[in-house]
Amino acid sequence: MNPNNVVYLRKLHFHSRCGRYCAFLTHVDLMRLLSVSRPTAYRIMQNQRMSAVQREILELKLFGLIPGWDGWRIGPNELYDPTGYRYSIGDIMSLPLLKSIKLG
Q1: CA nearest 57: which of 33, 81, 87?
Q2: CA distance 42 to 11
Q3: 24 vs 10: CA distance, rounded Å
Q4: Tell me: the pLDDT tens digits for 86-98?
Q5: In degrees, to the nearest 5, what angle opens at C-alpha 46 toward C-alphas 42 and 48?
Q6: What are phi and psi of 55, to 5 degrees?
Q7: What are the extents of the domains in the chain?
Q8: Interatomic CA distance for residues 69 and 17, integer angstroms
Q9: Contacts (Cβ under 8 Å, ≥6 apart) of 74
Q10: CB atoms near residue 41 (< 10 Å)
Q11: 3-state secondary structure the chain
């Protein structure tokens, strides 16, 4: 193997704060997901550190985790609560109607 290509095989092991999810990211993934330059992506991989905002962006884009809503995550057309219950778009859209019925 060409030693110059070794840098392309390196991946950042990104773990969510809750510890339930893990992703392996290349510098190209970091550039695409965070909209950062190549040197910044390499610096993140080398130092194994990133800002809190960058971490939140990756958690949202990779795992669907919502910052500040521990245990909640976004799936395709659904919202999952910490117990695993799924809320569809229709469920969420009907909340104002249910609230008005309850109050009325």
Answers
A1: 33
A2: 10
A3: 9
A4: 999 888 888 887 7
A5: 110
A6: -60, -45
A7: 1-64, 72-104
A8: 12
A9: 60, 64, 66, 80
A10: 21
A11: CCHHHHHHHCCEEEECCCCCCEEEECHHHHHHHHCCCHHHHHHHHHHCCCCHHHHHHHHHHHHCECCCCCCCEEECCEEECCCCCEEEHHHHHCHHHHHHHHHC
Question: How does the average pLDDT of the chain come out, rounded?
Answer: 85
Mutual orientation of helices 38-47 and 27-34 as an angle, nearest 10°? 120
Query: What's the Rg (C-alpha) of the chain?
Result: 19
Token pair recorded at residue 63: 């795992």
Task: Give me the torsion for CA of 51, 56, 57, 62, rounded to 10°.
Answer: 120
pTM of model > 0.90 = no
